[in-house]
């Protein structure tokens, strides 16, 4: 994020008092409106991730993964308020290069001069934190226990907030070395993607995943997956453009450039994804197209307003290529990541961090790069080195911390679902949602003697049906068979309808003198 | 809404002439941009309500309820323009404490000094009005006649615009007593929720609703319901944050705070909803999770920028608790509200109005609370009393007016669907949309001799199929059986394709000398 | 778009240097923030078009049409960057009245004084270009070859960027004659709609389309179609309101008016669509309701801030009427446009262009209409004449160029799918997505001996299923039948679960001494 140390000595900022206490809180009215509006849009990315992940898994888990995305905000958001924001941006003693202290349970008084900027800053950071933590959910889909996931959601904030502080906090050692990561190719995506990889490894592949080779399993609802892509795509514009952290001074110009770069990169990545799709001898692959675009967006995120147009396209193409190339590779290595989060966010996120070291302009008068430039812009090797260090530190941290976290959680609640629960699907087992026509009923009967949950799952009605109506209609059918009118009792609406169902049905019984003709009418 | 009487005596408003005629129209360029942008987002809440409601009902009514949401904007919007805005905010004689007069068919001349602010104000109010009126549709789902609903949509504006004037209009008696309801816990949600309760009571429960106990019926499409939750969630940010009614002066700071409070409250409510879900012995309940979050959002709406962080969380938790606790209670009382709108918006809306009386800060220099504070902030009992009065007035008005309205409409068009139409589902009966695999065909055959509509419903093709192709393929199958080539006629595209289907199929007939091998090929 | 020649001589623009080089780049910080934010929202219209089109086609093509919408942005966006923007807005020699030159591969240096405005302008124009080109995809649904469509996507930019230059470019002959088309009733919708008509004619109707009369085929997923309507509806607010091209000066007032006009027009069109729906003797027609609203939005787009409130409603009603009236007419003429794009965007777009000639105000101090007024406002016939000329030029251009383009593409890759591919559906043939329960399997078996693609399509698993699990469960069933325990091998998760599936299953085999009771247990 671009809140480093831009000197507000230009005359454009006329209508506000610029605040100097902590670069995070240097926000004028226009800046605050900009980041607050963009935070609104960034939150919609949760919808995008939810729909994408839900569309990618098999139907018997589509609801469960959406619920996990809900829980990510509720629990992840709470812990970010409790300690995450403080760890990333706290400024009290004994804050050091590795961890911020203070700012927990942040709650500025309205008499505080900084109360507006603090609120806006927290909102913006919260939108980033929830986005980062939800990246992992896709990699854990279809086999992670819901309660264990809740625990993970609570604690996942730790994985994110530490490196965010290193790169964005005033105290951070990477920031102070000159690391650049504007909208978080590293802090958000690399961290999320590597954490996803760790989780996918810890959980192991889904049952029978590689029985038929490494081809991707069929998407449960490709339309929803593509809709998720679209929502993420537009959300990304706010994600990157909002990361100028305002519009005052020259920032509005870079905000516009960030949006253009984001679109151009996605076109580059989309082109590569389309190439992968069309090159596939078997099919025009949806997931390659989706992840090609997402991978390019991840790649351009870190230096979104530091690139020329053709560089954005190139960076996007490389990001898309690395994503599409790595996805099947991970499958070959037996790492089962149902939505490809490790490749999309991890591999391409690392590239996004490095790309800054190669291509970054110095966006004067902003101090984003501390006046440095990338290797290809004549800036020498320093920035590239720092970016490499950043990528390595973030990867090591997020892998290690995720493994430790999951290991601990597994001791409390086993993270992997019981195998028969996995076969029945989390929607049925956890939420009693019975999808019909996709083999759940067969699984139920095949696994019948196994002790699943206390309650029986056989009686769960199919999704979309109305059991009340069903029993009602069965009664009608029975009545027809008995050919003796219909006796039904149900609660009456307050307003009595003149011509009720029963009366209509009883009319023939009462009026007809010829029971045979009636019989005929019923059975017709 | 916060357009009361904020004194624009600070130096931040440099670029506009602040207008003093009517507090509603005191809008600078920045303020107008803020509320117009936020109105755009608030309109997306209609998408959220549509998806949530459509996902909650059984499949055979999922389209019908979406159509009702469309009609809400079309007809409700028209009447809001015709008279609703005038009743709420009119200032002409004989405007009194209970009703505004004038401002009907609002249409400012471009030479009018206020033409910009009036346009912006109307747009913002319109987005609120359509949101409020659509809350009711969920409670009427699956059994309300479509045409009667259209009539209700037209007139429902009355239920909303009167109390909105009481609380927000310059003339309103509640406003002049000091009632506070920033983004409408009362005027939007309590009114909508109580109206929903009235409608659910008037319509009576769905057929067979309580045959198997009070457990919720299965959701028709839980993924859509959860997507609706997400859309509403983010829309709510604009709803509350936009209700600072601008960003000039100190407003931008409170706008940021409103967004933070909204997120924090939703986390509190989400936690409670998750608790209810996990505590349910049978399942992790989707609807409790959804309505826990929505209930907390409703609760924080009224005083969205008056609370400290932990208070927002607490208010959200209480709102979520009241919602999740009341939902099954209403079912026990035989009130069938398919999406839980009465509990979510009504009960939690009342709590939201009261919470202001307990917790409100005085957000100086804004005049939102007229300098008053809530009970727990040392403001004494006055504000709490006014808020209680507001809650009672709004509840009584919306219940009574809804009952009268529906009673009148029922005299014109019966509001409840015929029972056999309800059993077949509104999608089939009203829209000829035939969902397969959910028992509609069985219902059709069971109810066969009943006079449903003029036209037959038996021939309606299943959703998602292509009847043109089906007949085409049946012809192919017939042709195969006859083993004598294929005669098909269909319209030609302008560009003749070189190698058509017929030719390919005819090749074996023409070239093959051995009819037996051909026969084999066909039957393979 | 309203970037003509507004004189920035008012004092409101305090915080920026207003730039005079090219009216397209006269953007202050506020203006840029406005159009950049609105561009974000306009891009969401792609989601709307995708969901609408995907919901309108039969299920066996629902994914394919979404993919085409993805490709529209990727390829259409790339060519817009490569040459489209330059053709519309280039200013170098030899730019003439018909075509702009220069500005290709646009990429402003950060030292360029105009670098911010150019970035913002390009982003905004890009959002318009991708919207226009995607209109066509709906008309080509269900029968257009995917690879041919990719080629079309690449080149379709030509169809859009030429007339956009005529009406909006500084060089454009229509602009210099005084043509008015604020947000593109003509340049976006008429062009898109007429192009859609040309494409529908070139492709010919879907197989068997008119076998059962001209009634619309069943929508594949009406809920998605309605969701698409909603997304488009709100996106349109940004589309029209953003086309003030800023908020500085008086623009913010007209931006607010544009949004109000847009909503009012949509209510008018929605009312007409509802009338058509209710008047239909067979059903309350979803597509009439949708296209009535969209048609009215198209109609109001061109003069969105030039109308009084009741005029907006009237223009919307006429637009909605023309759309709903023309849709079945086109079907009678054998033009098969699955989503009605020709009527909605073409016919209503033409009306939108003409409506300006009848109703336009002179929105002083903006120079939108060059001081002219519509016929009914006392402006005489001139503006009406120019608008008529605009409508005719745009129609002729887009029809001719689309036909030529498709004709050329058809020589390279046949644009129409093979007939057996069309019968199987593009989802299966192109993407190997097998929708169950909609007749695809029957089609597969009926068309079996035909040479479809290299690979067999019979083995493709049904959408939403998990083939890995299926084979796993089949093994369980087989094991049960053999009654000799269970031997399964699968990859282990890294963390060994204490109590695995196999062990549980093996317990009876090992411990039980009575094989009969075990047998019983298995078969239970």
UniProtKB/TrEMBL annotation, chains A, B, C:
<keyword id="KW-1133">Transmembrane helix</keyword>
<dbReference type="InterPro" id="IPR029020">
    <property type="entry name" value="Ammonium/urea_transptr"/>
</dbReference>
<feature type="domain" description="Ammonium transporter AmtB-like">
    <location>
        <begin position="34"/>
        <end position="432"/>
    </location>
</feature>
<feature type="transmembrane region" description="Helical">
    <location>
        <begin position="256"/>
        <end position="278"/>
    </location>
</feature>
<keyword id="KW-0924">Ammonia transport</keyword>
<dbReference type="InterPro" id="IPR001905">
    <property type="entry name" value="Ammonium_transpt"/>
</dbReference>
<feature type="transmembrane region" description="Helical">
    <location>
        <begin position="188"/>
        <end position="204"/>
    </location>
</feature>
<keyword id="KW-0813">Transport</keyword>
<dbReference type="Pfam" id="PF00909">
    <property type="entry name" value="Ammonium_transp"/>
</dbReference>
<feature type="transmembrane region" description="Helical">
    <location>
        <begin position="148"/>
        <end position="168"/>
    </location>
</feature>
<dbReference type="GO" id="GO:0097272">
    <property type="term" value="P:ammonium homeostasis"/>
</dbReference>
<feature type="transmembrane region" description="Helical">
    <location>
        <begin position="313"/>
        <end position="330"/>
    </location>
</feature>
<keyword id="KW-0472">Membrane</keyword>
<feature type="transmembrane region" description="Helical">
    <location>
        <begin position="216"/>
        <end position="236"/>
    </location>
</feature>
<dbReference type="GO" id="GO:0005886">
    <property type="term" value="C:plasma membrane"/>
</dbReference>
<dbReference type="InterPro" id="IPR024041">
    <property type="entry name" value="NH4_transpt_AmtB-like_dom"/>
</dbReference>
<feature type="transmembrane region" description="Helical">
    <location>
        <begin position="114"/>
        <end position="136"/>
    </location>
</feature>
<comment type="similarity">
    <text>Belongs to the ammonia transporter channel (TC 1.A.11.2) family.</text>
</comment>
<protein>
    <recommendedName>
        <fullName>Ammonium transporter</fullName>
    </recommendedName>
</protein>
<feature type="transmembrane region" description="Helical">
    <location>
        <begin position="73"/>
        <end position="90"/>
    </location>
</feature>
<dbReference type="GO" id="GO:0008519">
    <property type="term" value="F:ammonium channel activity"/>
</dbReference>
<feature type="transmembrane region" description="Helical">
    <location>
        <begin position="380"/>
        <end position="409"/>
    </location>
</feature>
<keyword id="KW-0812">Transmembrane</keyword>
<feature type="transmembrane region" description="Helical">
    <location>
        <begin position="34"/>
        <end position="52"/>
    </location>
</feature>
<feature type="transmembrane region" description="Helical">
    <location>
        <begin position="342"/>
        <end position="360"/>
    </location>
</feature>
<feature type="transmembrane region" description="Helical">
    <location>
        <begin position="290"/>
        <end position="307"/>
    </location>
</feature>
């Amino acid at each position: 994020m671009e809140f480093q140390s831009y000197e507000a000595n230009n005359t454009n900022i006329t209508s506000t008092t610029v605040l100097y206490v902590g670069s995070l809180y240097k926000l004028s009215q226009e800046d605050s409106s900009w980041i607050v509006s963009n935070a609104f849009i960034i939150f919609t990315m949760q919808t995008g991730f939810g729909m994408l992940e839900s569309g990618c898994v098999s139907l018997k888990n589509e609801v469960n993964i959406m619920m996990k995305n809900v829980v990510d905000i509720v629990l992840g958001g709470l812990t970010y308020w409790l300690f995450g924001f403080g760890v990333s941006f706290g400024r009290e003693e004994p804050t050091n290069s590795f961890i911020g202290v203070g700012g927990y349970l942040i709650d500025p008084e309205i008499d505080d001069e900084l109360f507006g900027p603090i609120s806006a800053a927290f909102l913006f950071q919260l939108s980033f934190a929830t986005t980062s933590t939800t990246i992992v959910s896709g990699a854990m889909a279809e086999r992670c226990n819901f309660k264990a996931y809740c625990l993970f959601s609570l604690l996942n904030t730790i994985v994110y907030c530490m490196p965010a502080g290193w790169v964005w906090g005033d105290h951070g050692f990477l920031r102070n070395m000159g690391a650049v990561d504007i909208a978080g190719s590293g802090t958000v995506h690399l961290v999320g993607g590597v954490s996803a990889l760790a989780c996918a490894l810890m959980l192991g592949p889904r049952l029978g995943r590689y029985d038929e080779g490494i081809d991707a399993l069929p998407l449960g609802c490709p339309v929803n997956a593509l809709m998720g892509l679209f929502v993420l795509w537009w959300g990304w514009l706010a994600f990157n453009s909002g990361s100028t952290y305002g519009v005052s001074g020259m920032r509005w110009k870079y905000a516009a450039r960030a949006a253009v770069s984001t679109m151009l990169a996605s076109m580059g990545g989309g082109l590569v994804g389309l190439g992968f799709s069309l090159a596939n001898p078997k099919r025009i692959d949806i997931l390659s197209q989706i992840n090609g675009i997402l991978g390019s967006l991840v790649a351009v995120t870190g230096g979104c307003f530091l690139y020329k147009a053709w560089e954005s396209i190139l960076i996007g193409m490389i990001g898309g290529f690395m994503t599409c190339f790595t996805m099947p590779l991970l499958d070959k290595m037996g790492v089962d990541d149902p939505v490809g989060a490790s490749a999309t966010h991890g591999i391409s996120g690392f590239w996004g961090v490095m790309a800054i070291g190669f291509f970054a302009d110095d966006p004067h008068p902003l101090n984003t790069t501390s006046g440095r430039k990338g290797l290809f812009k004549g800036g020498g090797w320093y920035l590239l080195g720092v970016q490499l260090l950043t990528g390595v530190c973030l990867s090591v941290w997020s892998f290690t911390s995720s493994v430790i976290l999951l290991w601990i959680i597994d001791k409390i609640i086993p993270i992997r679902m019981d195998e028969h629960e996995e076969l029945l699907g989390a929607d049925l087992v956890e939420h009693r949602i019975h999808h019909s026509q996709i083999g759940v009923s067969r699984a139920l009967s095949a696994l019948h003697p196994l002790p699943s949950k206390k309650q029986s799952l056989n009686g769960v009605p199919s999704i979309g049906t109305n059991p009340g109506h069903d029993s009602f209609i069965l009664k009608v059918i029975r009545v027809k068979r008995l050919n003796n009118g219909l006796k039904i009792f149900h609660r009456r609406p307050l307003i009595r309808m003149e011509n009720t169902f029963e009366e209509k049905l009883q009319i023939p019984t009462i009026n007809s003198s010829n029971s045979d003709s009636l019989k005929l009418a019923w059975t017709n």
